[in-house]
Design brief:
Helix content is 72%, strand content 0%. By secondary structure, the protein is mainly α. It has a domain of 122 residues. Helix 1 packs antiparallel against helix 6 and helix 2 runs antiparallel to helix 5. The chain is globular and about 50 Å long. The two termini are 34 Å apart.
């Protein structure tokens, strides 16, 4: 939720400046191109983002791991959310495009709540039930989920008037809505 707050504040500035729809389209296209390049064009070198930042988080996790208290478990989960993860990056792009801080925080909360049961299940039963074949198939599904989110971000920014998918927000991109 803290990441949702930070990216929600940033996204709110884009929204207030009238760039939220352009941002949504740009993020969707960038995410789509990144996913395609990462998964189907391996010859293209992609930059490593936040390498020194992630090393610091790994050190923090090691320190927290040694404490083994209920509070340190909470901190461990929070620090784990800061580690480099493509799915978290995609969720943050969605939070950034919300245009509202509370919605961005809720979006990240739901992302965390949605991943929690699967992470617990993998931790508890993963070694027994998730065979290498199932794990490989799950990894093959991730790019398609990322592309779906990318397309949804583009549709959201296109202002097509489709409720919940691409709501009509104004006459044109960046138009101000005036209520009387």
């Amino acid at each position: 939720m803290l990441l949702g707050l930070a990216f929600g504040i940033l996204g709110r500035h884009f929204f207030l400046a009238g760039y939220q729809q352009k941002l949504s389209i740009s993020l969707g296209v960038a995410m789509l191109l990144f996913t395609i390049a990462r998964n189907w064009l391996p010859a293209i070198p992609l930059p490593v983002i936040g390498n020194s930042f992630s090393k610091g988080i790994y050190r923090l996790i090691q320190i927290i791991w040694e404490k083994r208290t209920p509070f340190s478990t909470l901190l461990l989960g929070m620090a784990n959310g800061l580690l480099p993860c493509g799915m978290v990056y995609f969720a943050l792009a969605g939070a950034l495009s919300m245009g509202d801080t509370v919605q961005a925080m809720g979006y990240m909360l739901l992302f965390g709540v949605g991943t929690f049961p699967l992470l617990i299940a993998i931790h508890q039963f993963g070694l027994v039930f998730i065979t290498p074949t199932i794990r490989t198939n799950m990894r093959k599904f991730i790019p398609y989920a990322m592309m779906t989110v990318s397309v949804l971000l583009v549709l959201r920014g296109l202002n097509l008037g489709i409720p919940y998918l691409s709501p009509f927000l104004g006459k044109e991109m960046g138009a101000t809505i005036s209520c009387h």
